[in-house]
Amino acid sequence: MHAVDMRRRRFAAAAAATIAAIAGATGARRSLAAPKDYTVVIDGFAFKPAELSVARGDTVVWRNDDPVPHTATAKGVFDSGSIAAGASWKYVAKKPGRYPYVCTFHPIMKGTLVVR
Ligand SMILES: [Cu+2]
Questions:
Q1: Protein residues within 5 Å, CB atom, of ion ligand 1
Q2: 99 alpha carbon to ligand 1 midpoint, in Å?
Q3: Are residues 43 and 21 in the same domain?
Q4: Residue 83 Cα to ligand 1 middle (Å)
């Protein structure tokens, strides 16, 4: 084997190791921003908090503490359907944006989900 080929091989191996190290560091940074869980409590015919800001990939749980069913409905984006008294509904935020939502049974109940 020629010396030039050996040098080329060594260079390729070093480059591959550098790329692997960069990929590893990037992976570590990503895991620091692990998805979070948030809860919106439905209580007294109100969403609490009324406005919630989450990152894409985070999970939002609406928990109905009222004695009657409610929904969390942002037309065309998400719709819990009827959440029975004492039950909850889970949604994973997907697309960044600002999404006002209502309870379709009691449209005076309003909330906003902001996805960053
Ligand atoms: Cu309601």
A1: 70, 103, 105-106, 109
A2: 17
A3: no
A4: 9
pLDDT digits (tens, 9 = 90+) for 49-81: 999 999 999 999 999 999 999 999 999 999 999
Give 95 Cα–ligand 1 centroid separation in angstroms.
25
Other beta carbons within 10 angstroms of residue 75's beta carbon come to 11
Domain containing 13: what range? Answer: 1-34
Are 82 and 54 within one domain?
yes
For ligand 1, the distance from its centroid to the CA atom of residue 102, given in whole angstroms, is 8
pTM, two decimals, is 0.73
Residues 6+ apart with CB under 8 A from 81: 71, 89
Report the chain's mean pLDDT, rounded to a whole number: 85
Do both 28 and 42 map to the same domain?
no
